[in-house]
Amino acid sequence: MLTTVQFTCSDCAQTIEVNDEMRETILETGCPVCTTAAAEDDFSTA
Questions:
Q1: From the CB of residue 18, how many other CB atoms can be counted at a distance below 10 Å?
Q2: InterPro entries under this entry (predicted)?
Q3: What residues have CB less than 8 Å from 41, skipping those under 6 apart?
Q4: Tens digit of each residue's pLDDT, the chain (46 residues)
Q5: C-alpha dihedral, 34 to 3 to 6 to 44, nearest 10°
């Protein structure tokens, strides 16, 4: 089962629900909206 977490961008404040795979991608490539680098602190359990 996939874990779902909330990602909130520290720059544009966009909040999206993501699964583990999407979380890893965001950590590697940054926010999908504004491309600001993401950190572990930007994720929280839904």
A1: 19
A2: DUF7560
A3: 10
A4: 678 999 999 999 999 999 999 999 999 999 999 999 999 999 998 6
A5: -120
How many helical (H) and strand (E) elements, i.e. helices and strands, does the chain have?
Answer: 1, 3
- Closest to 18 measured CA to CA, from 29, 36, 3, 33: 3
Cα–Cα distance, 37 to 3 (Å, whole number): 22
Q: Longest Cα pair distance anywhere in the chain, in angstroms?
A: 30
Q: Give 4's strand partners.
A: 19
Q: Return the amino acid letter for 40.
A: E
